[in-house]
Specification:
- There is one protein chain.
- A hairpin with a 5-residue loop joins strand 6 and strand 7.
- By secondary structure, the chain is mainly β.
- The protein folds into two domains: 48 residues, no CATH class; 352 residues, Methylamine Dehydrogenase, Chain H (7 Propeller), CATH 2.130.10.
- The radius of gyration is 24 Å and the shape is globular.
- The strands form nine sheets. It has a five-stranded antiparallel sheet, with no helix packed on it. Strands 5-4-3-29 form a four-stranded antiparallel sheet, with no helix packed on it.
- The protein contains five helices and 31 strands.
Length: 424
């Protein structure tokens, strides 16, 4: 026994030291805690989405519907207030119900809810050497009067413009993600990783770039305090790693000429940006990156801020963790925040991530409730004029990443069609 005591003591000491190190490694993020956490996440992801990755069922794109247990013949559309519907057309982007033709699609509906056109979006044509289509997600979508569309993909490596048949007009490689916005002067604005990019909408040529960390955060001698990019863990002063996505940029929108008079404190072309992880909305000068205005909260993990004709800014407040999202309106002068729309217990509205809003000319708001796969139009007094569930089965909907309203005359005399014109 005496001969074994040194070995027992060594093993015991090693176990104690390993346990103590394990505790501190977990708290401080030391090796191997990050690697173990990543491995655990990978195992959970494979378990949840193996059918998706084998192209058996698109589980990465399916979400629970509010109205679970619906009849199998329910197509998901309900028109509640016909006289309150904004005239025009609605485009809805997401996974294609018909997986045989294309993984993704953009669908066009008229104000009566009738389907009028479909754009197939085949990611494999845009990035043949990249991920399988079901492992990316169609997110950003912009529409042109000629019936073409521009698209981006979360986790993808391309931004592209497609004609009415879904054929590529141009493709630019890169980590473009979230929203795309036309500026009215021949440019498309989008995020490429942590960089704002303006592209020529006709050719895809990159015209301008603006780096978040190098041009905006460091503008005017440094604006770090606004963007919260420094950590003081354990008494140290060190930059927060950008690889961990501390900002999660999800929108950029230029102040267009026709809206500029409503915002005298800004200049035409200024950029409204949204950084989800720090709950920040900001307006920056495109040439210098200097802040014109910024505000954090009361929104939480927000998406899709838009300049409005009355001088306010509308935003989709995910209110992540609350189970109740909101559409808000902010006055950038007074900083007052008002609620445009919120759900109720009987008519819930929530999307813990993603989501879009669009204020319509008649005062209604078009809402993309991404994480429940629903699009609806709400009146100023909070009633639902119509709603559409993107039905997959009795329990689940397809994620909806973008819905867009366009006026009746947007496409001119004919609606988009593949090969031939389609009467209005």
């Amino acid at each position: 026994m005496k001969d074994r005591l040194p070995a027992i003591s060594f093993v015991t000491s090693a176990v104690v030291l390993a346990s103590v190190y394990g505790i501190f490694a977990q708290r401080q993020g030391w090796f191997p805690a990050p690697q173990i956490a990543q491995a655990e996440d990978t195992i959970r992801d494979v378990k949840a989405n193996w059918k998706n990755d084998l192209a058996l069922e698109p589980t990465r794109h399916l979400v629970t519907a509010h109205n679970r247990g619906r009849d199998e013949n329910d197509q998901g559309y309900a028109l509640h207030l016909p006289d309150a519907v904004a005239p025009g057309y609605t485009l809805v982007a997401g996974l294609s119900k018909d997986q045989d033709s294309s993984a993704f699609s953009v669908e066009l509906y008229d104000e009566e809810g009738q389907h009028r056109h479909s754009w197939p979006v085949d990611y494999s044509k845009l990035d043949p050497e990249g991920l399988k289509p079901l492992n990316v997600m169609l997110h950003g979508m912009e529409i042109f009067p000629d019936g073409s569309i521009a698209v981006t993909f979360d986790a993808g490596n391309a931004i592209a413009r497609l004609n009415a048949c879904g054929d590529p007009m141009w493709v630019v490689k890169g980590g473009y993600h979230h929203a795309i916005t036309r500026d009215g002067k021949g440019g498309l604005w989008a995020w490429r990783n942590n960089e704002i990019v303006r592209l020529d909408e006709e050719t895809g040529e990159i015209i301008k770039t603006l780096s978040l960390e190098n041009d905006i955060v460091k503008a005017d001698g440094g604006q770090e305090g606004v963007f919260l990019v420094r950590s003081f863990a354990a008494g140290e002063d060190k930059p927060l790693s950008l690889a961990s996505d501390p900002f999660h940029a999800n929108d950029v929108e230029p102040l267009r000429a026709e809206m500029a008079d409503a915002f005298p404190q800004f200049e035409e072309g200024d950029l409204l940006i949204s950084l989800r992880e720090i709950n920040l909305l900001a307006v920056v000068a495109p040439d210098t990156g200097a802040l014109r205005w910024w505000q954090t909260g009361p929104w939480l993990k927000q998406h899709d801020p838009d300049f409005q004709p009355d001088g306010t800014i509308a935003v989709f407040d995910n209110a992540t963790g609350s189970g109740a999202s909101r559409i808000l309106r902010i006055d950038p002068v007074t900083r007052d925040v008002t609620t445009v729309f919120a759900g109720t217990t009987d008519a819930p509205f929530s999307s813990w991530q993603r989501g879009k809003q669009q204020m319509l000319p008649n005062g209604n708001v078009l809402v993309t409730e991404a994480q429940h796969g629903r699009v609806f139009e709400a009146t100023p007094d909070g009633q639902i004029a119509w709603e559409r569930d993107m039905v997959w089965d009795a329990e689940r909907n397809l994620i909806v990443t973008e819905a867009r309203h366009v006026p009746e005359d947007f496409f001119g005399d004919t609606l988009p069609a593949c090969g031939t014109s389609k009467a209005m």
